[in-house]
Amino acid sequence: MTAAPPLPTLLLIPTGIGCEQGGYAGDGLPAARLLAAASDCLITHPNVMNAASLYWSDRRIHYVEGWALDRFAAGSLALAPRPCQRIGVLLDAGIEPELVLRHRQVIEACRASLGLTIGPVRTTDVPLGVHLARGESGSSWGTIDHPDALLRAGEQLVAGGATAIAVVARFPDDTGSAALAAYRAGAGVDALAGAEAVISHLLVRHLGIPCAHAPALQPLPPDPDLDPRAAAEELGHTFLPCVLVGLSRAPDLRPEPAMGGQLLHGSALGAVVAPADALGGAAVLACAARGIPLITVANPCLLAVNATALELPVLPARSYAEAAGLVTALREGLNPELLSAGRPSDDGAWHPGLSPPPGDTQPHRPY
Amino acid sequence: MRPSSANTRSEHARVVTVSPLLPFCFWLPKPAHHRSGPPDLASLADGITDHLAGQGWPGAEPLRWAITAVDPVRGWRLEGVAVASGDQAVA
Question: In B, which residues are within 8 Å of A312 by CB distance?
Answer without folding.
Answer: 38
